[in-house]
Give the backbone structure.
Amino acid sequence: MVNTYFAEPWIAGSSFTTSSKIAGNNTQKIYRARTSRRFQRMEHTYMRQQIMVYYKLSMIKLVRFLIYISLFSSACYADIGVLIPGDQEQPDPSILTLDEVRVEIRIDHQYARTRILQIFGNHTARRMEGKYVFAIPGDAAISDFAVWDDVVRIPGVILERKRASEIYENLKMQQIDPGLLQQQEGAEGPRMASAFSARIVPIMPFGTKRLEIEYTQRLNIEGTKSYFSLPLKPDLFRQQMAGKVSISLDVQSDAPIADFKLVSSVYPLQFSAQGPQRVTGKFEASKLALTEDFALQYRLDVPKSNLYFLPYRATEKSMRDTGKPITAFEKPSAQKLEDGYFWLSALLNEASKQPDHAPRSIVILLDTSSSMRWEKLDQAYTALEYFLQHLTDQDEFQLILFHQEVLAQTEKPVGATKENVDRALAFVKSQYLMGGTDFEKALQAATNSSSLLKSKDRYLVLITDGNPTLTYVKTREILKHFQDANAQAKFRVFCFGIGSDSNRNLLSDLSQKSNGSFDWVQENEDLSFKLEAFFAKIGQYPATNLTFSTSQQDLTYQVYPADPAQVYDGSSLDWFGRYKRPTKDVSVSIQGDWQASPLQLQTKVDFPEEATEHDFIPRAWARKRVDALLREIELNGEDDKLIDEIIALSKKYKFVTPYTSFLAAPRSLLRPRVIRPGDPLLRVKTDPEIVSVIAIFPFGLVKPLEYLASEDIWQTRFLVPKEMEDGTYQCRLILRDRAGNQYEEPKSFLVDSKPPVFNARWEGNFSRGRTVKLLISADKDTRSIYARFDRMMPVRIEWNAQEKRSVGYITVPADLPAGTYQLQIIGEDFAHNESTWTRNVEVF
């Protein structure tokens, strides 16, 4: 990482590029950091005139200046997950601490599933709400989320975003323990972001809160190498101290694993297996500061290009084996079973046929707008330095900086000699970050330079966060104008995105539509692996026109290729699809072009009746479909049909999209929880997605519940055997939602055949016109108590915390004749057992 220093801004003119105001006037707060990037000490100066602020760059003295209109007004995201007290903006270890973190990582044929369990401790006497914020890799998808209520795990379910928020607020008011997980939206709408947040309530005084999250991602293969990183080191927050840390790792691959190594040193695994097809290991520690991300890399030892195939198909037996509830009412039939899924991967290794690099002509566009400050600037400069220093003497380049204007370092391309590279880096150090981002001007400047390039192999390298703010800002407009200009320039575009907020849709489209390549890094991510892989592609040509086919044309359907659309040597392209029926000895093949020659890979596979080992396949197939729909929305705007399909796929295959949320709350709330023998009424409150509820009782009775739309509740009557002893029993509820998913929830209930017992006394006597205070002591399961004097209306007796008993008042009518009257105390418990206490009293 380049060392960073700070300097005063250059102030010029009288116009201020940032238009934010404070307290309704033009006063601007300028903060100058005097220490490290964590900005531990800041001083501010008030300026009562509008100013233009430029941010100056430097190399080993990389100059950066900080300007705040309001302190940390943009969202700050953690990595592994930070729980922030509800009334604060930053985590506070004196209030909430990370007591334990457990991580399970399974990498199955390049598809990683990461499950994280975190336990936080509340060190206050207050009942709190917390905000759980975290970031995941941008190409990952949340696949599970749960909160714990004491020892009960409450799994998340997928609901439409708006509906999930409504239910969350309703449950919170009822003091039920929900957790709401939503994908953060950027200013440009619902593109696939990597930041998520979850509101957690309640966190009990001096108690703990347990949270679980699981996400899945595809690990790219570059140069036959692969890299995995788990963000454990917080980004913008201070480092976390964990009371306990455990990490378990399981890597499986049909392609032989070689040169496996851990990149991070803080988490040394103890390996239990380290062979060519499987690597497993564990790490445990106490009181550990999370100062590094957990990262590893390995190589796939494949001497030539090859195909790898995996199927998935669930049967009735596999449903039972995986714990999916099956009842007599929901028994699956052959007709109801889903068709199978499959994954096919083409791993290319044509190194022996790869020609030497021809001289390359490269235009580099470096984004120096104000959005590229701080860690983004470090990453961008590191990438630029790597690119320039790895050019050969035969290459030529031109460096152009852009923000709201463009500034070329030279009038025309120059040779990539050491002297010219040093001049380019010195030029960057002398410039300033400023203003907005005009992609139109930058791309136009690059295409105008194309006529000065010597080689026909022309490359345009963009180092940017991809967030345009001036001229054209919509992806569709930028793509159209660039494609028109590039028809003559004939650039292949290679985009290197910087930052977790990078516009990955725009940058990947610019690259793919010009036969280039795209990758991106987060602000604090280790660049070495991605930089090497990205730069190696500049000068290579990918395999193109790759298509999938089988020897049986009607066997497969809805087949989607996974990203990347272009496959370079040493990398892979995956296909996900569906198959209709079990079939053996099917030829599957991939055809395409590579280096102007035909490319064909073929193998024979079986599409089985049952295969459940690789459960990443169905969800990955659904994600490919959703990615295509989101891309269409990005290009053409939102459409109800597209959104409805995204929501349906999200619910069925359980992953979060910009239009859905995970809600972790009990799917059913059982009423009543206390019943008595006889013919009680069972009522169950569920969320709106549930379409069927079946109750299975411990005494062998199975009853479907009826939905009462007028009350929005499910109910049924059932017989409790009279010989059933009082006590606590378990009732199993089988719930099915609209997407066909089934859930099983155990609910406890108490059989209580005994009426409540209570004692009553009163203060004073029953004189005419006098108010008498009644004090009632009753069993703790008594839900209501009333007092009735003679033929008067009943009076409710309420619990009084100070008296530690129930208290009520009866006023004796002033005109009541003297004599003997009856006082009745009537009590009912939660099982609706009633008892009556009667005494005769004298009225004077």
The mean pLDDT is 77.
